[in-house]
Amino acid sequence: MKKIPMVKIEYNKTFLIQINKDLGVRNNALPILKNKEAALRMETKRIRNRIEEINSRLKQMIEGVAYMQRLCCELPPLVKLEKIEFTRKKVASVNVQVVDKVIFRTESFSVFAYPAWFLQGMEIIKQAMQIKIELMNEERILAAVEYARRKTTQKVNLYEKVQIPFFEEAIRRIKRFLEDEENLSKSSQKVIKNRMEFAA
Fold first, then answer.
1. Is 31 inside a domain boundary?
2. Which of 92, 108, 143, 193 would give a disulfide with 43, using CB separation of 3.0 to 4.6 Å?
3. Are 171 and 12 in contact (CB under 8 A)?
4. In terms of residue numbers, what domain contains 77?
């Protein structure tokens, strides 16, 4: 892409053709970029709502098991995160990774060595970890979509406020210059013709 401040206007037909072509490319791309920007804005809003909902679920879960927290801290960590599997997906034309599966590893232990509520506590820990992983992934997706939106907005502004007006003004100037040059050439030819007629 041309950096506009560096473009020097050349007052000839070749440059006029090139600049007309550049203007056409930008005029055609602008509506597409605006649609993309709108889609990215909507997607950003949707992801923010999803993050709020996940945060709310996590908060409710933590509040629901507040009575167990002190007890859980006293027990050894038997639940470990083994791996997270992701799938690639396009979100408003942005490539992102979405959590597909979270795999936990549970250390072997004797059920009789721990209180009756311990199995339920382990499941709650798994659920809380799963929700936290979802939340972190959504935040990563949001960052990627917001970055794409900012870049698209910059491009829309560059086309709309800088490049298109520059090209339109350059086209006007070149056309005016070429018309003046043509008129001057015609006038010169008339003067030469008149002189030749006068001399004869």
1. yes
2. 92
3. no
4. 11-187
Q: What averages of pLDDT result for each successive group of 10 residues across the chain (200 residues)?
A: 63 94 97 97 97 95 77 73 95 93 88 77 87 96 98 97 95 93 81 71
Tell whether 168 is covered by a domain. yes
Q: Which amino acid is at 130?
A: Q
Is the C-alpha dihedral spanning 21, 27, 28, 34 positive or negative? positive
Question: Model-level pTM?
Answer: 0.79
Look up residue 53 and give its two tokens.
């909902």
How far apart, in whole angstroms, are the C-alpha atoms of residue 123 and residue 30?
51
Number of domains the chain is built from:
1
Distance CA 114, CA 40 (A): 50
